[in-house]
Amino acid sequence: MRRLLKWVLILVVVTIALSAIAYPTMTWWQERSAPKYLTATVSRGRVETVVNSTGTLKAFRTVSVGAFTSGPIKEIYVDFNSEITQQDQVLALIDDKLQHAAVLRDQAAVETQEAERDRVAALLEQAVKKEFRAANLKKIDPTYISVDEIEQVEYATKTLKAQLKLAEASVKQARANLQNSLDQLSYTKILGPKEIDPKKGIKGVVIDRKVDPGQTVAATFQTPELFTIALEMDKHLYVYASVDEADIGLIRAGKDRKEVVKFRVDAYPGELFDGTIHEIRLNSTTTQNVVTYPVIIDAPNREQKLKPGMTANITFAIDAKDDVVRVPAAALRFTPLPAQVHPDNRHYLEALTSGQGGSVGSRTVTEKAGMSQSRQRRVVWIQEGPLLRAVPVTLGLIENRYAELLKGDLTEGQPVVTGTEGALLPR
Questions:
Q1: In this structure, what is the dihedral angle of CA atoms 131, 133, 136, 142, given to the nearest 10 degrees?
Q2: If you count Cβ atoms within 10 Å of the first and of the last residue's Cβ in the chain, which end, N or C, has fewer?
Q3: In whole angstroms, what is the distance from residue 334 CA to residue 388 CA?
Q4: How many CB atoms lie within 10 A of CB 411?
């Protein structure tokens, strides 16, 4: 009996010792196995939605200056980067020997036709006088002149009148040929484009020269291009950006609000340039099933740092709000496991799961539109003890880092869960 009591006593002591050791061990293990949550705080500040793109700088407008007449280039008075300030500024000269000879030839032809016209006019005057004398003789005595003689005089007058008209037409034709030759001679001077207007401050810059002295230009079938002149580069340039079709609606909204577009170029990596959306063009481009639209940005260039051909990294400001309560975007992307969520809030997970079910292609356009609209109604998670509790929120502007909080039981400075680290509880 004593031995039995002794063993019972030993067993009780061992049990108490094991319990004392096991309880803190299990507690430590549970704490170690529990997930550790990453959090970020609800803050106040600026929320801005943007669209990023790339583009190429081009001149506001370019004019191709060509040659209307043929011949070898005699002189070139401008070069790359030369400034054109006048419409009648001579850019180059074409050798005018052939054109000058044509002018002399046509001048001689005009003089010849004018002399022929004067000769016919003199004969006509003589014929008119003969006809007048014949008519007077017939009045005095019809027998003084025969009917045949009267008819010869009358028809000679009519013939000379017709010849005079023909001579006058020949003079006009000769003068037209002379004018053509004079114009061809004037075209040997290559002048600045008509778009240049010094009164309006419109100047041009030669950005391309395609001929050299002595080179022959032939304008028989196609007008050869001699120079390319960019206008108003000292005022502004255009940035041609290609924007994905999914972002065109946002770009249009930014254009309607006249939002400022910011961009940078590799030549000045630490400097930001501003511009405004000038135009959203309709001529789309499809590359590997990706549809893009050209968006034209008007960028000032008073300091002339921007050059045609530069690559621009562009940020379109769509909308922005300052001093608003904002939720970290990482909290919107976090979805916990059911075991981590308070039982009363697990229906939010079921709603998220059901909303993600099914392939995108199997949904109707109505469902897709509803999903897009519900993007503003989301759920974030806060920690209450070992479990998480859902907080429904209504969002405004959403960007990569933050989202504007319109409605929701959250306060500034409150932590929200953005992720987990360590071991996860089983489902």
A1: -80
A2: N
A3: 12
A4: 10
